[in-house]
Amino acid sequence: MSPALSVVMPVYNAAPFLSASIRSILDQTFPDFEFVILDDASTDGSAEMLHDWASRDHRIRLLRSPVSLGTVGSSNRVVAEACAPICARMDADDVSHPDRLRRQWDVLAADRGVVLVGSLWDGIDAHGRSVRPRDRWRLLRPLLSAPFAHGSIMFRREAFEAVGGYSEEWKFAASAALYGRLAGRGRLVVIPDALYRYRFHAASVMHRRQDVAMRSTDLMRRMLVGHADGCLSEGRPSGSPPDGPPSLEAIFSAGALAVWAGYRPTVHIPWRSVVTADRLGPALLKAIVHRWGTLSPSTLRRLLAVSVRLRDMIASRFLPRETVVEWKSPLSIAGRSFEARGDISRQ
To answer: Please, which of 8, 66, 240, 332 could form a disulfide with 183 given CB 3.0 to 4.6 Å?
Structure first.
């Protein structure tokens, strides 16, 4: 018989944290699932580790691609291989709370109008130590980025397939584009508890995620303001960030990833972008905080952790008492939704 749930996880060179990630899924309180894992042509020993895990637990269904499919291709492949009508995403360097799958499953089972449920998260470093607290404040205001980690989502496969899955045209903002499309199919909700642990570490933050964070931030801003070539017009979107240097917001977002990992940001904010900003005060504050991170990331991280913890406490006074909170994609707030091919139509 087919399982009730498919947990899907693409893997590319994740050996240092792979076992902790797999173990967190196999130890879930929700029992009826398959674990579909794709080795996306890893070269760091991940393949051997995956074979060992698969030989020990029959719930793991291991796939291998002889060539790397990339982030979008591998993410679409694992969903395509899933057997269950509901899929839960997992990332190979993060950790799930033991009750994550059960609680998310209960939300989808209780309301057919919900097409995706994520959860809040806390941040851990390379050694598994907590560095960034849960942040319920992110549920109180619309932001460019989702309040839940991408690896924490659980969704209806039917809706995922209907909107075309992850789009190669929007590879630098593939998850945001997916949320925008799914918002046209049903409700996106968030469990306001940290059921997922997002790992900040050097291998991803320093060499990959800072660049991706800058590109995705600028691309999201283009989609929202409508200045991207073809983004909000007829035809296929370009799906690439604007030419020229990244924006102040993009550099600041990318630098935050490095600071949470305990490293110095590798890209500096040019003062010209500060003095020419529309709002000088916030821009100057971001530049000062970013500069602090380049000088002493450890002290800034401690201060930021205290700040996040305080605003999380404040947010608890304004959040509804329901077990989930509806979240609207910035794209749906702007009155736009994505069609299955990646084009954009006005609602």
So the answer is: 332
Nearest to 342 by CA among 143, 174, 115: 174
Residue 183 lies in a domain: yes
* Apex 210 CA angle, 91 and 161, nearest 5: 40
Query: Which residue segment(s) compose the domain that 306 sits in?
Result: 203-315
Q: What are phi and psi of 8, to 5 degrees?
A: -120, 135
Decide if 323 is inside a domain: no
Residues 71 and 186 in one domain: yes
- pTM of the predicted structure, to 2 decimals: 0.87
Note whether 157 and 47 are same-domain residues: yes
Report how many domains make up the chain: 2
CA–CA separation, 136 and 192 (whole Å): 6
What is the C-alpha to C-alpha distance for residues 115 and 187, in angstroms, rounded to an integer?
6
Phi, psi of 185 (to 5 degrees): -105, -15
Spell 251-274 as b/e; 16+ CB within 10 A means b.
Answer: bbbbbbbbbbbbbebebebeeebb
Contact 120, 135 (CB under 8 A): yes
Q: At what angle do helices 46-56 and 15-26 cross, to 10 degrees?
A: 20
pLDDT digits (tens, 9 = 90+) for 241-250: 555 677 777 7
Q: What is the DSSP letter of 206?
A: I
**Token pair in block for residue 123:** 């941040």
In a domain, 344, yes or no: no
Which residue's entry shows tokens 């010209």?
A: 272
Q: Is the pLDDT of residue 1 over 90?
A: no
